[in-house]
Amino acid sequence: MIRLVLAEDQAMVRGALAALLRLEPDIDVVAEAGDGDSAWDAIATHAPDLLVTDIEMPGASGLDLALRLQQSGSATRVVILTTFARAGYLRRALDAGVRGYLLKDAPSEQLAQALRQVQRGARVIDPQLAVAAWGDDDPLTERERAVLRLAGEGMKTADIAQRLHLSPGTTRNYLSEAIGKLGAANRIEAWRTARAKGWL
């Protein structure tokens, strides 16, 4: 029996996915979570074989959860199930040890089969995304990404500096580097470009 935690912030989608997966004789959805923090608590409580998670959720994202599991040495394998066909997300997911990356419009039978393959130790990636992932390298450093993400939320330079424990001058430098690397006119344009490519 494959025991899994399902993390998805849209209640209707989460309910439909859980119902479909529970129809499979060898899959047991042991917990459902509507945000990343609840998902982390469910993983700690149930120690599931798999975490099936969306990328963008309130609290910790699916990528954050994958990275935490990787760093903690957990045996729980991660499968991303998302609408975001962005190569940048896939690259970051693979770096975080994700074992499966599938799009939500895939047939439910395909999802169940992919989960079985991941449980057996295979890696399952949507073929179109696998090809796209290697064509567009992410130029941003982790610090540039963090600064740009907060700038995209509308935070001022001084507030970003305080949040990330940096000096305002260093924060401006990181923003300037990110803007330059992305060929953008300003921080908001840089944020939009990076987000569209899945780099944030």
Automatic annotation (TrEMBL):
Domain of life of the native organism: Bacteria
Any one GO biological process: regulation of DNA-templated transcription
UniProt cross-references to InterPro entries, sorted A to Z: CheY-like_superfamily (IPR011006), Sig_transdc_resp-reg_C-effctor (IPR016032), Sig_transdc_resp-reg_receiver (IPR001789), Tscrpt_reg_LuxR_C (IPR000792), WalR-like (IPR039420)
Entries under Pfam families matching the protein: GerE (PF00196), Response_reg (PF00072)
Protein name: Two-component system response regulator DesR
4-aspartylphosphate modifications at: D54
SMART domains: HTH_LUXR, REC
Region forming the signal peptide: none
PANTHER family with a match to the protein in the record: TRANSCRIPTIONAL REGULATORY PROTEIN DESR, TWO-COMPONENT RESPONSE REGULATOR
UniProt key word Nucleotide-binding: no
Occurrences of domain Response regulatory (ranges): 3-119
MF-aspect GO terms: DNA binding
Domain (HTH luxR-type) ranges: 133-198
Keywords in alphabetical order: DNA-binding, Phosphoprotein
CDD domains, sorted: LuxR_C_like, REC_DesR-like
